Amino acid sequence: MVRKSPAAHGRKRDLRVRLPDHEHGVAVAEAVRHEVSVSRYLRTLLSEHCLTGRPPDEIASALSRLSRQLSGIGNNLNQIAHALNAGRHEPVSQVLTDIQATDSEVRALLRTLRP
């Protein structure tokens, strides 16, 4: 098998990074877990951060918040279904508004994640 050089892949520059032993160990362990080289793992982290312009913690926080909102909406839908099955006709417009707002937030977050 012939391996292409990094320059053949458009990688012409070297970047040296010095890490303490424990951070290096974490980077190596994560690369092994993802079955890639440490170089590829770090390039992926760098490109994902630069492409989104947002640190991964902010994305995780936004997704967690949206998940809680969707859970609340699901609870509301269950309550409405229970009321309708009991013969009470509760207004559903607020639940639909909540669903649409959450859908808009999810779509906006997805646009920030996609290049």
Record keyword descriptors for this entry.
115 residues; mainly alpha; 2 domains; 0% strand; elongated
The DSSP helix count reads 4
> Which spans of ≥5 residues are poorly predicted at pLDDT below 50?
none
Round the Cα radius of gyration to an integer and report it.
23 Å
Order of helices and strands: HHHH
Please tally the β strands and state the result. Answer: 0
Helix percentage range: 55-70%
Number of domains: 2
Structural class: mainly alpha
Mean pLDDT across residues: 79
Layout of secondary structure:
Elements: H1 21-33, H2 38-52, H3 56-85, H4 93-113
Helix pairs in contact: 1-2, 3-4
Describe the structure concisely for a colleague.
By secondary structure, the protein is mainly α. Helices cover 69% and strands 0% of the residues. α1 crosses α2 (38-52) and α3 (56-85) packs antiparallel against α4 (93-113).
Give structural notes:
The protein is mainly α and 115 residues long. It has 2 domains: 17-52, no CATH class; 56-113. It has helices at residues 21-33, 38-52, 56-85, 93-113. Helix 1 (21-33) crosses helix 2 (38-52). The two termini are 32 Å apart. The mean pLDDT is 79.
